[in-house]
Amino acid sequence: MAEHMAELHSEGRATFAGLVTDGEARLDRIFQAVPALGELAVGTVYGHLHARRTLDPRMREAVALAAIIAAGCTDTPLTVHTRTGLASGLTPAEIGEIVTETAAFAGFPRAVTAAGRLPELFAGTPIPPDPAPREVLLDLLATAPESLRDVLTDDVQVLTTGPGVAVALVRDADGTLTATIEARVAGASIVALRVLAGGQVVDRGAADRR
């Protein structure tokens, strides 16, 4: 058991170091007074849980952030998971939305306290944050631009897949995927738009960019 925990701890430290600059040194500082807690926490969260395949890293960090905010843990846990959340592909706008959503279930005082930390944790990015890529692509699709009308249906699922990228999955009435629309986003603008439909990839050009 001890050997297994030590292995998970080693894997967790490596995972964390891949997400956060000087990650191992940061962990050493956090747990310097209680290294056994560091072995347990890092081994569990970044060794065991992070390796599970049911949730992708973005979703796992979103869940962790919601739980941390709901628990009122706005010091080290919020700092750590905001950093690893951003490194896993969450955008500042999405983290802000997690805070807003959590307020409805965990109470406004805890959400407001967490919100007060975000400008510091989002250092180097616009405050308030730029819209998430999903928002930008949804705005474009809502206008139903002429060059996309041949591929759009009533069943469109739009996802942010990482910083600066959103994807729309278009399905027909039977639920069959008929087209994929990928948007590359900078700030509130689409800088590249690509459509995969009928086995062909087409750059829809500047007319579809906002």
What would your notes on this structure say?
It is a single chain. With 210 residues, this protein is an alpha+beta fold. It has 2 domains: 2-121, AhpD-like; 133-208, no CATH class. It contains 8 helices and 5 strands. The protein has helices at residues 2-19, 23-30, 35-48, 57-70, 76-87, 92-106, 108-121, 133-142, and strands at residues 155-162, 165-171, 177-186, 189-197, 200-203. Strands 1-2-3-4-5 form a 5-stranded antiparallel sheet, with helices on one face. It is elongated and about 60 Å long. The model is unreliable at 206-210 (pLDDT under 50).
Give short descriptive properties of this protein.
AhpD-like; 210 residues; 18% strand; five-stranded antiparallel sheet; disordered C terminus; 5 strands
Q: Major sheet: order of its strands?
A: 1-2-3-4-5
Percentage of helical residues? 40-55%
Shape verdict: elongated
What is the number of helices?
A: 8
- Percentage of β-strand residues: 15-25%
Q: What letter string, H or E per element, gives the SSE order?
A: HHHHHHHHEEEEE
CATH names the topology of the largest domain as AhpD-like
The chain-level mean pLDDT equals 92
Radius of gyration: 20 Å
Compute the number of strand runs.
5
- Give the total of domains: 2
CATH superfamily of the largest domain: AhpD-like
CATH architecture of the largest domain: Up-down Bundle
N-C termini distance: 56 Å
Q: Enumerate the spans where pLDDT stays under 50 for 5 or more consecutive residues.
A: 206-210
- CATH secondary-structure class of the largest domain: Mainly Alpha
